[in-house]
Amino acid sequence: MRKLRKLTTKSLYIELWLTIGFALLTGLVIFLLLQQANEAIYSSKWCKKVYVQKRLEESIEDFKDYIEKNNVDGDDPLAIQTWGTQNPYVYFYIEKNGKVTYNFLVDYTDPDSDYNLSDEELEESYEYNPYSKEYTIDFADGQYIMHVFEDFQYDLYNKIHIINLFISAIIIITIITSLVRKKIHYIKEVTSGINILEGGDLNYNIPVKGYDEIANVATSLNSMRIAVIQQMENEKKALQANNSLVTALSHDLRTPLTTQMGYLEILKEHHYNSQEELDKYLNTALTTCHQIKEMSDRLFEYFLAFDPNPKRADDALDEYDGMEFFMQIISELTPPLMEQGFRFDVKEPSESFTIKVNADDILRIFNNVFTNIDKYADESTPVEISFINDKDYAKVTFTNIIRNEPRKNESAKIGLISISSLMKRQGGSSLTRTSNNRFTLELKFPVIS
């Protein structure tokens, strides 16, 4: 049942057409039931004996009043026809001493009409309704006999028929209007929810009713609301992490900086007793310099990774021979790792290519790449470096086996994010994949034709 309801309410068009069909069917059924009641009233004794007789008596009295007020003669058919036209369900003729002075079958306003009926026509008028009643009517010029028969049953039937049509139409309109009103009310409810969300209350959940397009809008708005809340929470966490990182790095920087300043002061004042002591103080100062540089690099990479506008201007980019540029950087960064036992398998492309990049950014990217290799790559297997040129882009791919335990812990954990941000600055992109303990980093640079 629920699946059927979901199927029939998944579209406003389907709902509307089903409602119209249901309304028409309901209206037809009610109309047929009302018509059955109408038929019963038409053939009832009450209608034949009470209703008809009452209306006939009222009509005769009205006719008498009309004659008296207008001083109508019995042989004035035009005046009599005026009343007959106003009472279309009363059929009658007037006669005196066997002579018909008015017959409802004759149009006395027609100048070509023959007022004198033949005996056969008169007989037909008598036989038109064998149940006609006779009334003695006092006209201005004497008494006449009025032969009357009526069709008040048909009149009542027609009136009830019109009322039945009106009731059925009202029911059809009411059913259709109820759906439209329901949908309009729901649209207003969704609009009100949007206004609440615009006011800043993101905890308000817009009610989802049904499965149609309006319900889909409400669902989408709720999903967007949740996404906004999550984004705000992530931004809040990022801000808190930023503050924590800045605070921690500021504190960490003070320690080696203080140490370095102390040893530099010693060296400046020549407070050492031997060359060995001098070398010791210099090595300690140099070590603290490296510590300060590493911390400052982390801080720079953190802010770079979350830069909202990473794209560099064209004037900050320079053209380079891609293969020559990359090999120069690789040749500078691989020796320290090779001394630790790392091996590199470099596969050069068959065709040269030209790229347009910022040299400082590329150097930072490769520094991050080789730093990650130093921390996480297994030196027992070679690190594969391949170059692919597919006309539109040049791809530099680094592949290595992951160590079971990293050599160092990356405190900020944003190396790959920094690489991605720096690649976007060049109009490129980065992609990472991990499969079967095998890590792949792909750098994609746009190529200049």
Would you kindly provide a brief summary of this structure?
This protein is of the alpha+beta class and 449 residues long.
Quick tags:
449 residues; alpha+beta; 7-stranded mixed β-sheet; 4-stranded antiparallel β-sheet; 11 helices; 11 strands
What does this structure look like?
The strands form 2 sheets. Strands 5, 6, 7, 8, 9, 10 and 11 form a 7-stranded mixed β-sheet that branches. The longest helix has 56 residues, at 213-268. The model has no long low-confidence stretch (mean pLDDT 82). It is built from 11 helices and 11 strands. The radius of gyration is 52 Å and the shape is rod-shaped. 59% of the residues lie in helices and 16% in strands. The protein is α+β, with helices and mostly antiparallel strands. The relative contact order is 0.06. The two termini are 63 Å apart.
Unreliable residue runs: none
Which structural category do the helix and sheet elements fall into? alpha+beta
Q: Give me the strand/helix succession.
A: HHHHEEHEEHHHEHEEHEEHEE
Which term fits the overall shape?
Answer: rod-shaped
Distance between the termini: 63 Å
Helix fraction, binned, reads 55-70%
Number of strands: 11
**Rg on CA atoms, Å:** 52 Å
- Name the average pLDDT: 82
Q: Which strand-content bin applies to the residues?
A: 15-25%
In this structure, how is the largest beta sheet organized? 7 strands, mixed
Total of helices: 11
